[in-house]
Amino acid sequence: MDASRWRGERIYLYRWPVDRRKSIDGLCALVDTELQRNPADRCLYVFCNRGGDKIKLLIWHLNGFWLLYKRLEKQRFIWPDWFEGESLLLEAGQLDQLLDGYNLNGMRPHRALAWSRPF
To answer: How many CA atoms lie within 13 A of 100 on its CB side?
Structure first.
């Protein structure tokens, strides 16, 4: 994913694991109640599940929400450990690194994998 797509928008990384079944409405409610922000404010909100292998990105665009989802096959997303509140404001490049598999705490990348047929 190219971080240049998110230039100009604020990127908020939610601190706590989120139930992987949450979709747009559930994530919007979380942004509203936990972060006390308007989910349609054109900011990008980033969430991870308890296992750390799934990530969701929520953003309002013109007339509706986008929900982007990534599932890792073998590794885990490593959330930064330098939070001061319920969310962390990231730069676009940091989001790119996180999505590419970097541990932002130590800047170690994931191993590249090739997809193989599960059947």
So the answer is: 14
